[in-house]
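job 3f2a | input accepted
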Amino acid sequence: MDQLSREVAAALDKTGFDALAVHSGAPLKRTGADDQYWPLRPTPHFQHWLPLAEPGCLLIVVPGRKPVLVRPPAQSFWEAPAPPEVDHFWSSFEVVE
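job 3f2a | predicted structure (97 res):
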């Protein structure tokens, strides 16, 4: 995590941006006539930072600060994302729900 944060800080400094925002992705509808979705395939850039397969999450990286993970509430009453296979990464992020 420290290495990723250093690399992002260097890239942001070089390009003049203040922060990096990475979206986890959104599930695609199977058809316009129903409310069923294909399984989520998180964006590779998001998965490079953490092994979380939840739609609508946002990772915000600001140099010198702990990365922030924004997790929106589940939108489906019937279905929820699978829990992560590992949980060692949670302490590396400030989680906002």
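job 3f2a | Strands lie at 20-23, 58-61, 68-70, 94-96.
job 3f2a | closed
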